[in-house]
Amino acid sequence: MAKRSSLYIRIVEGKNLPAKDITGSSDPYCIVKVDNEPIIRTATVWKTLCPFWGEEYQVHLPPTFHTVAFYVMDEDALSRDDVIGKVCLPRDTLASHPKGFSGWTHLTEVDPDEEVQGEIHLRLEVQPGTRACRLRCSVLEARDLAPKDRNGASDPFVRVRYKGRTQETSIVKKSCYPRWNETFEFELEEGATEVLCVETWDWDLVSRNDFLGKVVIDIQRLQVAQPEEGWFRLQPYQTKSRQHDEGNLGSLQLEVRLRDEMVLPSSCYQPLVQLLCHEVKLGMQGPGQLISLIEETTSTECRQDVATNLLKLFLGQGLAKDFLDLLFQLELSRTSETNTLFRSNSLASKSMESFLKVAGMQYLHGVLGPIINKVFEEKKYVELDPSKVEVKDVGCSGLHRPQTEAEVLEQSAQTLRAHGALLSALSRSVRACPAVVRATFRQLFRRVRERFPGAQHENVPFIAVTSFLCLRFFSPAIMSPKLFHLRERHADARTSRTLLLLAKAVQNVGNMDTPASRAKEAWMEPLQPTVRQGVAQLKDFITKLVDIEEKDELDLQRTLSLQAPPVKEGPLFIHRTKGKGPLMSSSFKKLYFFLTTEALSFAKTPSSKCVNELNQWLSALRKVSINNTGLLGSYHPGVFRGDKWSCCHQKEKTGQGCDKTRSRVTLQEWNDPLDHDLEAQLIYRHLLGVEAMLWERHRELSRGAEAGTVPASPGEAPKDSLAQLLRVLQDLREAHSSSPAGSPPSEPNCLLELQT
């Protein structure tokens, strides 16, 4: 049994931020820290006081974390970035509102005395004496202290205070991982109620010392539990009241939700998994449809989460294709109009979206990556809508003339036609498409053709495929490449417009150039030749895509499985430690690294232009090392230079590390390994939330059986399957109740809104 904690974070936007630049504006971005460890950095939005980010993240983190902090920063090219303000959410606050936070909250000032981090290692004991007891406090070492000096370190010392007496350790120069091994003694009076305060400071020669954190020890508790030794988390000074500053630093709109799950052993979930898998294997020929019942009882708000959990569960069981095929049949059975097929946010649509992101993201990168990079690099002005054309000057110096609207429209059309190479690249990518994706589209194509036969519906199977491939996968990735990890930063306004027009062209092709799609935006007419050509290419591509037999599917899947997929790839700068003097650009060497589940390798030239930030690399390394039994519990964050480590000044090169290995905070990515037990737990949690509705349906079916009637629609589950499911839920509830952590918390009734 293990407790899993995850944090859903959506950083929406900011407003009324203060100007930090001489231009009267700012270049804001956000940094998210979990217990002072940076895990997320958003894109920078240039020259604005009301930035929009719209970035979503899922973070897996240890259940013992304390706080999540959001820092709004102003990026500066020539100096240190400015801190605008922060929002801090303690774990207890998040845990007390499992539905999460949503809304605007004021940024508060960043107080240096509150920005503490790290831990201190203490040994505490009360020793009996002839006249009075003595309190002995041994200050051993500290780790991960905040760097306060320009050299990226601190000069820490410890001040121990008790009942008006103060004693101090020696100063350790240039270290955030100091070692003191000094002991102090204080005389205790009988029945003493005072506290022992251990403060850590950064020593400065000319300015006042900087506060690094403190630990407060209850003497009465120590006398009962003595002796005590361990690592103590450094705490800040008490938060100062800043009500008069509220609103002066602007506001941040956030959505934050913490989810704690107690995951039972795999054997506990087997009855639930086997029951659901049995239903999927039987398909529409089975006696009942629990999958249909799950869709019926799932609200719109949580349908995406349920679809993703079910998809991952069946993907791990090798039944993703069968699960999606069942959903296709269920939706087709209740659809009579072809123009509404797979256009709603049904369980089939949401599950297929998740499936393409999990199974097809690498394929999307291979097809879209070169085109997206070209659009970002060219930064051309592109506009087809005459009402939005901006006329600009063209020509040589001294001979400028206004560019006509017709010239802008023609140049824009030419640029977009050139980017139409995307459709050609797509048509050539049949063999690169994962076998399980091809097989799933084959099932979709066949089911739709069976449901809507005849010449008048010739294009319907093609449109069904493109409704997912183009409209729900490729087009969103073109419009928001950062959200699909195609680019590190959001596009500027000009590039965004180019991407939007390109996505519209892909959508028109995906709609098979129907009259309805042409009538919506007549100004897209200059691209009609490209769209018509793209329709022919796309139909030929889909015909080849779905032409895969069972044997070919297995052979192709076996070939692809032999190649370890990259978890992360991109450029990193390696510091050359042999150089002297300040760290100049010449002190670094640029190499391109490739991390797979089997190895970490590098080369001098890239195979792709994907740029990965440090926290993404750390997250990827932690994931592939999660089952590494030889993973060290500590390490040295510095380098061994001369005769000692630069971080803690330890002279033994092979000595124990001075900082603990952080392996628990990771960012959720599309290519994460499947966690079958967690997905089963999440499905159980959802079913527990709709258990009352399931029991109501069970009673309806029982009354129908007594009256001699049978369920009228194929989507209704019979009594025995539903009764089995209810028994499984009861068994899982009892398993949770008997676990040390007790039963899972019930879902709250409301969402806590942040202050506006």
Indicate the structural class: alpha+beta
Question: Runs with pLDDT <50, length 5+?
Answer: 393-397, 558-564, 577-586, 607-612, 711-718, 743-756
CATH class membership of the domain at 359-391 and 405-559: Mainly Alpha
Sheet having the most strands: 6 strands, mixed
- Beta-strand portion reads 15-25%
Average per-residue pLDDT, rounded, comes to 82
The CATH architecture assignment of the domain at 359-391 and 405-559 turns out to be: Orthogonal Bundle
Helix content: 25-40%
Number of helices: 19
Q: How many β-strand stretches? A: 27
Rg, Cα atoms, Å: 31 Å
Remind me, CATH topology of the domain at 359-391 and 405-559? GTPase Activation - p120GAP, domain 1
Strand order of the largest sheet: 26-4-1-16-7-27
Q: Can you say what the CATH homologous superfamily of the domain at 359-391 and 405-559 is? A: GTPase Activation - p120gap, domain 1
How are the elements arranged and paired?
Layout: E1 2-15, E2 28-34, E3 37-41, E4 52-61, E5 67-74, E6 82-90, H1 91-95, E7 101-106, E8 119-127, E9 134-143, E10 156-162, E11 165-168, E12 179-187, E13 195-202, E14 210-218, H2 219-225, E15 228-233, E16 251-263, H3 266-282, H4 290-296, H5 303-316, H6 320-333, H7 347-378, E17 393-394, E18 401-402, H8 405-419, H9 421-427, H10 435-451, H11 460-479, H12 493-510, H13 515-520, H14 528-545, H15 550-561, E19 566-575, E20 588-596, E21 600-603, H16 614-624, E22 634-635, E23 640-641, E24 644-645, E25 659-660, E26 666-667, H17 676-689, H18 691-706, H19 719-737, E27 752-753
Parallel strand pairs: 7-27
Antiparallel strand pairs: 1-4, 1-16, 2-3, 2-5, 4-26, 5-6, 7-16, 8-9, 8-15, 9-12, 10-11, 10-13, 13-14, 17-18, 19-20, 20-21, 22-25, 23-24
Helix pairs in contact: 3-17, 3-19, 5-6, 5-7, 5-17, 6-7, 6-10, 7-11, 9-14, 10-11, 10-15, 11-12, 12-14, 18-19
